[in-house]
Specification:
Blueprint (H helix, E strand, L loop, with lengths): L1 E6 L3 H10 L4 E7 L12 E4 L5 H8 L4 E4 L6 H9 L3 E3 L2 H8 L1 H10 L7 E4 L2 H5 L7 E5 L9 E4 L13 E5 L3 E11 L5 E3 L3 E6 L4 E7 L5 H18 L3 E10 L4 E7 L9 H4 L4 H9 L13 E7 L6 E2 L1 E3 L1 H5 L4 E5 L4 E2 L4 E8 L3 H14 L1 E3 L1
Parallel strand pairs: 1-2, 1-4, 2-3, 4-5
Antiparallel strand pairs: 6-9, 7-8, 7-9, 10-11, 10-12, 10-14, 12-13, 13-16, 14-15, 16-21, 17-20, 18-22, 19-21
Bound molecules: adenosine-5'-diphosphate.
Adenosine-5'-diphosphate binds next to strand 7, strand 10 and strand 15.
């Protein structure tokens, strides 16, 4: 039986483990919180820090393969494990390229992949000299996540909000739509591309809170986006599952925003809405089986369940019964016992051939389902 490890025990790890039940595999999770969403779904939970070299090497020693659910892992340790013969998905070199936004942006540039024009700033003082480059978006090189580590700098007055650390200053794109394309690559080099997902954001929290799949965009633009996503994955030269986030601008030009080298929020719907889910796909890759069918069975939308404003503490769910009574609606709670404003507590998938229904039900669920304390 193959022993497979996951670095990180959050909701993505949890959903990955759910899909593992279809295969004969022994699962391991490394995370520093024994009550994390994935802790009770794996065979072996190991308490430790995914950013600590020794913790990761000790965890991975003797495993057949290892994957990540977040980029902020100790890449040196993964390199050591790779040298010891553990298969690492994706390769540590690909994680290294993506983990730091400066390196990631330079990778796009040197591979001829369209991505917003940028300059590197190492301090607030350097940022202050770039008034001519505004409006722009300032992104922390390392350590940012979920919109933290990203600041919009429209004019001189915003410069104070910028980062006093290595960061990229990126030209502001006039976004028409944000989409994501998930690409799977096997050890033998086969590629499978999931249809694009359209993402809609809560501008206040700067967090994804609603998405529709397949994305409602013209075929030509989709082809461009898919070709670009494939080029990113080919450039990374690694098997694994990758989510490429892209912008479609007002002139229908497509730009790569960023890439996640792992299962991704933009692929939650694939559990119910596609023949092969992103999670199943990653198991196929790690177990060296043939890739699955990425085609949608039916269009879908997703609503994220976020902790309500003004509530922190033990989570209580309001409106669950009403949501569970709705047809073709699938609830996923991540098992987090505590809520705080904006925390990702779960998601709901809605299936329908009617675009109107996808949007109507998503809005309805957003209004009735509340996570309070
Ligand atoms: P994170 O890794 O925190 O998700 P992103 O780089 O995806 O950060 O940026 C978060 C959001 O900020 C994006 O989804 C987009 O809405 C906005 N954004 C990022 N870069 C740009 C840009 N160059 N132009 C316009 N908006 C941007």
């Amino acid at each position: 039986m193959q022993k497979i490890g996951i670095l990180g025990g959050g909701q993505l790890g949890r959903m990955l483990l759910q899909a593992s039940a279809n295969y004969v595999v022994e699962t391991y999770v490394l995370e520093n919180d024994e009550n994390c969403p994935a802790a009770h779904l794996c065979h072996h939970f190991v308490k430790g820090d995914i950013r600590n070299y020794d913790d990761v090497v000790n965890f991975g020693k003797g495993l057949d393969a290892i994957t990540i659910e977040i980029e902020s892992v100790n890449v040196d340790a993964l390199e050591t494990l790779e040298q010891q013969g553990v298969r690492v998905y994706p390769k540590p070199s690909a994680i290294r390229t993506i983990k730091n936004k400066i390196v990631q942006k330079e990778f796009y540039k040197s591979n001829g992949i369209p991505s917003p024009e940028f300059i590197v700033t190492n301090s607030k003082e350097e940022l202050a000299k770039q008034e001519g480059f505004l409006p722009a978006v300032h992104k922390l090189g390392e350590g940012g996540y979920d919109g933290k580590g990203v600041e919009v700098i429209r004019s001189k007055a915003d410069i104070d909000r910028g980062f006093d650390a290595p960061a990229v200053l990126e030209k502001m794109i006039e976004i028409q739509k944000e989409i994501a394309v998930i690409v799977a690559k096997s050890d033998s080099g086969d590629l499978a591309v999931f249809p694009a997902t359209e993402m809609l954001f809560d501008s206040k929290l700067n967090l994804l809170d609603f998405q529709i799949s397949p994305a409602r965009i013209g075929e030509q633009i989709l082809w461009k986006a898919e070709a670009m996503a494939q080029k990113v994955v080919e450039g990374l030269q690694s098997p694994g599952l990758f989510a490429v986030e892209l912008f479609v601008d007002r002139s229908n030009d497509v730009w790569v925003n960023e890439t996640a080298p792992r299962v991704h929020n933009s692929g939650h719907h694939t559990i119910e809405a596609n023949y092969c889910s992103q999670y199943d796909m990653l198991w196929r890759i790690m177990l060296q089986y043939p890739l699955g069918n990425t085609k949608p069975i039916i269009p879908s939308s997703i609503v994220n369940i976020l902790g309500a404003d003004g509530f922190s503490g033990e989570a209580k769910y309001e409106g669950l019964d009403e949501v569970l009574k709705m047809d073709n609606v699938f609830l996923h709670l991540y098992g987090k016992t505590h809520t705080k404003p904006g925390r990702k507590m779960g998601h709901v998938t809605i299936l329908s051939n009617e675009p109107q229904e996808l949007i109507f039900k998503a809005n309805k669920i957003k209004n009735i389902l509340k996570v309070i304390a």
